[in-house]
């Protein structure tokens, strides 16, 4: 018998997450309750179709008029309402005539928040980047179907190779791009100009040079665009300082499979990395030392990691079709949900906490009411055991006693008559 381990899941704090899979489905997962809720799928948007596989997604979870942008394999970008899944506008990203969307798929997508505040609420600005390096910033009018407000800014971020990762910093002024045969490079989005390009590390002592292949990248801090963390296909994690040098400041290996997902923590020096064999760990990037691995190994490649902006939890998903919620302090698995399809992306809806507080009071009152109902029901069920016998039962018992008395009287009269007959016979 193989040895197995069981991990007890204590439950999750209240959260709401959106997952995206290879069949184009968007699933809403919610956990309610302060004492450790169990996440459940509460809604599902779309129909299963492999051509609508979600390749990238970004959420603008402001309290008023939130938006969700989704890039699909068919080259279509959909802007949805993240609260109910209603489609606001659909935009086609296919620019070159005769090129199939699968050959130049969207790998990077960002929904601008700052530019949307400067514009009216009916306009949204999107940044897209394809595999061939075709980047574009376009403003979409969501009232008309579909229309661009002004000419989009388009440029190419690589001369050769394939882009596989893209990320925008917190101020939304700079963007990262990298991929297979493409060194990590940074662009100024206001000027659409390249401001920095990484330089590959030198060959090792044996003279072996590792070819460039970046699979994921992120900014170390939302407020500082100068420090960049990138993961490679050769299971390396590299820290770049744009203001210092072009080569990595710190570089270390993690396990033996490609790094597939990297995300930063709110403290500005911790990162979370996931690889192709399902290993998930946190690293202090200041020293490059491993803080620890998360308990409960995933059985498939991790493709996305999301850090909640308020709760001390992260979410991970990948090819094993599980959404997992982890505690960042204890690195323990809080809960997991099986979602049937290969998952490509997960995002948190941070506005859900306010809704949960209101719902929690209602649910507590409802639970108290239901408990009162259950208690009264139990009391009513116990009452028949304490009450006296009914009138029917008393009548039955009285009738039975009277019948027994009558029978005994008849026996006594028969005995008396027999004894009298015997005495008369003796006298005769």
From TrEMBL:
Keywords: Repeat, WD repeat
Superkingdom to which the source organism belongs: Eukaryota
Alphabetized CDD domains for the sequence: WDR74 (cd22857)
WD repeats: 295-336
Start-end of Basic and acidic residues biased regions: 391-409, 418-428
Gene3D superfamilies per record: YVTN repeat-like/Quinoprotein amine dehydrogenase (2.130.10.10)
Gene Ontology annotations of biological process type: ribosomal large subunit biogenesis
Matching SUPFAM superfamilies: WD40 repeat-like
GO CC annotation, single: nucleolus
Stretches the record annotates as Disordered: 360-428
Signal peptide: none
Name the UniProt record assigns to this protein: WD repeat-containing protein 74-like
Species of origin: Durio zibethinus (Durian)
Source species taxonomy: Eukaryota, Viridiplantae, Streptophyta, Embryophyta, Tracheophyta
